[in-house]
Amino acid sequence: MPIIKKTISGVDLRASFYLTSQSLGYPSNKQAILMADIATLIAKWRNGLEVEIYTENYEFRYGRIKSSRFNASGEESVYYATYFHTRAKPKDNDPFLIITFDPVVGQDDFMFIETIIDHRTYFGSPGAGKTKSHIERRSSDLKRRIENGKKISSEPSSSVQNVNKNNNDSPDQENK
Fold first, then answer.
1. How far apart are CA 9 and CA 22, in angstroms?
2. 36: Cβ–Cβ under 8 A, 6 or more apart, which residues?
């Protein structure tokens, strides 16, 4: 499938980026290690005001994003349909960044980096028998965290760092 070039009006961390990342297992010390790489990606996308979207794993190049709508087997996963993802570091599969597109005051297709996450937290353990309810629970937990983060501020902010002490549950924790 061809690489799609999507024009963007800008890119930034979501105001809740630090909070959401922390709630998904990336406290400030782990975030700090990745920030130079994330800043490089932001600069690349801001300079070109476009992002390349790939479909097949062999099309990956650092800085391209992939829709989360299809899993590694090419099967559609409606639970992740609104998200994109990309690697946080050039040569590492984990962690990666969740990307969304939202309008921001007069700017269509503003790209937001929502959070840092790893494959196990996002998709579940490899090879684990993932039931529909397991996938629904995992994706609805992520969606809740991202949507709650959007309520903090609709404006982008690379300098917001808050801690939500009431939302540190891991998505792997079962509701008992």
1. 27
2. none
pLDDT at residue 132 tops 70: yes
> What is the value of pTM for the model shown?
0.82
When pLDDT is cut at 50, 70 and 90, the band that residue 43 belongs to is very high
C-alpha distances in angstroms, 103 versus 39, 139, 153, 154? Answer: 21, 23, 13, 9
**3-state SS track over the chain:** CCCEEEECCEEEEECCHHHHHHHCCCCHHHHHHHHHHHHHHHHHHHHHCEEEEECCHHHCCECEEEECCECCCCCECHHHCCCEEEECCCCCCCCEEEEEEEEECCEEEEEEEEEEECHHHHHCCCCCCCCHHHHHHHHHHHHHHHHHHHHHCCCECCCCCCCCCCCCCCCCCCCC
Task: Identify whether the C-beta of residue 84 lies closer than 8 Å to the C-beta of residue 8.
Answer: no
Give the confidence band of 84 by pLDDT, cuts at 50, 70, 90.
very high
Give the type of residue at 176. K
Closest CA to 34 of 153, 118, 119, 130: 118
